[in-house]
Design brief:
The complex is a heterodimer of chains A (315) and B (277). By secondary structure, chain A is an all-alpha fold. Chain A has one domain: Ferritin. Helix content of chain A is 64%, strand content 2%. Chain A has a two-stranded antiparallel sheet with strand order 1-2. In chain A, α2 runs antiparallel to α4, α6 runs antiparallel to α7 and α6 packs antiparallel against α10. The radius of gyration of chain A is 20 Å and the shape is globular. Chain B is mainly alpha-helical. Chain B has a single domain, classed as Ferritin, core subunit, four-helix bundle (Ferritin). Helix content of chain B is 59%, strand content 0%. Chain B is built from ten helices and no strands. Classes of the chains: A mainly alpha (315), B mainly alpha (277). Chains A and B meet through α2, α3, α4, α7 and α8 of A and α2, α3, α5 and α10 of B.
């Protein structure tokens, strides 16, 4: 039976809706937007980190970077599947949009990452921030999303440990290493704070997503939870929290980040895929994907003509 | 070939000559796997589909894991990961030149052809080591062999698929012609130690026997797919086994050691428990 929005809002609860439900377009579009953003972010995060498989300064670190990159592609695969089940867009459409610069993804993955000391900025802080948000998505009203998050959260936990291990090692290293990490931290910290987006009164999509159970926490709640844990962690490892952007401790487990200290013009340029780093990341990945288009065409042709000898094994 | 040779015992029981022969066998195993894995990771987040990306990542990590096992066996003779992988010179390495050649963006046929040529050789080599007189090699070989089986199957199924497509077949044929003579370097000697390797029973086949079996298998399968196998190709020079490499290796090695150098490290991190093998 075709459900209307009022019924969706009334029933909205953890894992309430599945592909069996005939959901209104507004819900399906909102859920697709979230899932597509999340899946795209996994892919673009993997793309950003991939050079460090080769550069990492030990054999086992190389293995860990390779495994992390693989996990992220696997997460992308699961999330696109959960998105496809909403019937709004196919995986190919979402991947094409990503290659063409139309697909949106996390702000932190729009910045270049040149040095090994930057890797824990992603693998510890950004992944740690992502964990906060993702844990709440196990209660998403879209059941396939919630199920995907069970597996993804477990693996993200491993990634944060990997990032923390690298951070710990660097901060226990030479003076030079510690300085390099501190410089990277100063550069990345504002981006990490912006991970959670603007404060709630400026967020446009939140109300509806919350009402239909796609979002179970506000940006402010997530930012507070993150700051409570990670500011202390950063200090414990010997990092100095930059003076700006100012963060006011309310003394009750909540914080206020002074929004004017953050560059929101840059944030919105990033979120429109128009930042120089966005263009660089998107285009170089698109080029790599374009270069293997012939393989995908070959596979598509074989699927339609049924001439593939072992369609299952050849992936 | 040598049949019943006495077990060589543990690392500290080897004579100087035996140790030299064991090391020579281990270095090529380790270096081949390490560099093959490194090049293979080029395809991570660059493979044609998410599914093929995951498969490539699996194979890369398998090979890195094998390299780790072999380097660890070498370290039992007192070497360190730092001295072997990060503070060494490019010409300390003895891998075949096949595994060091760079990939062209988009040349997925190259990735598959190279993997196939290498994996078949690797499989034959491991078979020749299953009953090695050196226990450390014997034990590790049996753990690795199962994964190599899967790698060959992966490459074969892609090849079977690509030869059904005219454009893809041309790419496969080109890659085959480019790489065949480099693949032959896998069976080249590292010096005058080969006879000892055979005499001590460290490896149960000669290089010539392994090459002949590889040629049989590769030619049989690829010709069966309608490909033209350049069986009269000469061995590429330099061979890599002689510590001389193509110009591509120095660049790759530079990148692989860049963070270690930039950070001024003198230690490579071990994450896993040493006994967790």
């Amino acid at each position: 039976m075709n459900m209307d929005i009022d019924e969706v809002k009334e029933r909205a609860g953890p894992q309430e809706f599945s592909p069996k439900d005939d959901l209104p377009e507004e819900y399906r579009k909102a859920a697709t937007r979230m899932l597509e953003f999340h899946a795209n972010s996994e892919i673009m995060g993997a793309y950003l980190e991939r050079p460090f498989i080769r550069k990492a300064p030990s054999l086992e670190r190389k293995m860990a970077f390779s495994a992390k990159t693989q996990d992220e592609i696997g997460h992308g695969q699961m999330l696109y599947r959960a998105a496809e089940a909403l019937g709004v867009k196919t995986r190919d459409e979402m991947l094409d949009d990503l290659a063409e610069g139309k697909g949106k993804f996390l702000n932190c993955f729009h910045y270049p990452m040149e040095s090994y000391v930057e890797t824990p900025m992603i693998a510890f802080f950004v992944d740690g921030a992502a964990m906060r948000r993702q844990a709440t998505l196990k209660k998403s009203s879209w059941e396939p999303y919630a199920h995907a998050m069970d597996k993804i959260c477990f693996e993200e936990g491993m990634h944060v440990k990997h990032g923390e291990s690298i951070l710990r090692e660097l901060m226990n290293g030479s003076k030079k290493e510690q300085q390099m990490v501190q410089e990277a931290f100063v550069e990345w910290w504002p981006r990490i704070l912006q991970f959670f987006g603007p404060t709630d009164d400026q967020s446009t999509h939140h109300d509806f997503a919350a009402e239909v159970g796609l979002k179970t926490c506000t940006n402010d709640e997530l930012r507070n939870a993150f700051l409570n844990r990670y500011m202390q962690k950063a200090k414990d490892y010997g990092l100095e929290i930059p003076e700006y952007p100012r963060i006011r401790d309310n003394g009750d487990g909540t914080y206020e980040v002074v929004e004017d200290d953050l560059d929101w013009d840059e944030f919105f340029t990033v979120s429109k895929n128009e930042y120089s780093g966005s263009i660089e990341q998107i285009n170089s990945r698109a080029e790599a994907q374009e270069a293997v288009e012939w393989v995908r065409e070959m596979m598509d042709n074989q699927e339609t003509t049924g001439s593939s000898p072992t369609p299952q094994a050849a992936d | 070939m040598a049949t019943a040779t006495p077990d060589l015992g543990s690392p500290d029981e080897l004579s100087e000559r035996e140790q030299r022969a064991v090391e020579a066998q281990l270095f090529r195993l380790a270096d081949d796997e390490y560099v093959q894995a490194e090049r293979y990771t080029f395809w991570q987040v660059r493979a044609p589909t998410l599914e093929s990306d995951l498969a490539v990542a699996n194979n890369s990590q398998d090979e890195l894991g094998h390299a780790r096992l072999w380097y660890e066996a070498i370290q039992q003779f007192g070497y360190t990961e730092e001295s072997l992988l990060f503070e060494s010179d490019p010409d300390d390495f003895q891998h075949s030149t096949l595994v060091e050649l760079p990939f062209e963006q988009g040349d997925w046929a190259d990735a598959i052809v190279r993997a196939y040529l290498y994996d078949v050789a690797e499989y034959i080599r491991l078979s020749a080591l299953e009953e090695s007189s050196y226990e450390v090699i014997r034990n590790r070989t049996s753990r690795i062999q199962g994964e190599e089986d899967y790698h060959i199957e992966h490459a074969r199924s892609w090849l079977e698929r690509m030869v059904l497509d005219k454009g893809a077949t041309e790419r496969v044929q080109e890659a085959l012609e480019r790489h065949y003579s480099h693949a032959l370097t896998i069976f080249e000697p590292v010096g005058d130690v080969e006879e000892d390797i055979e005499e001590f029973g460290i490896r149960k086949m000669t290089l010539e026997e392994m090459r002949a079996e590889w040629e049989d298998r590769v030619d049989g399968f690829l010709s069966g797919l309608g490909l033209d196998v350049p069986t009269d190709a000469d061995v590429a020079q330099p061979t890599g086994r002689d510590n001389e490499h193509t110009e591509h290796w120095a660049d790759l090695f530079e990148e692989m050691t860049s963070a270690y150098r930039n950070l001024g490290r003198d230690e490579a991190t071990v994450i896993m428990d040493e006994n967790d093998e």
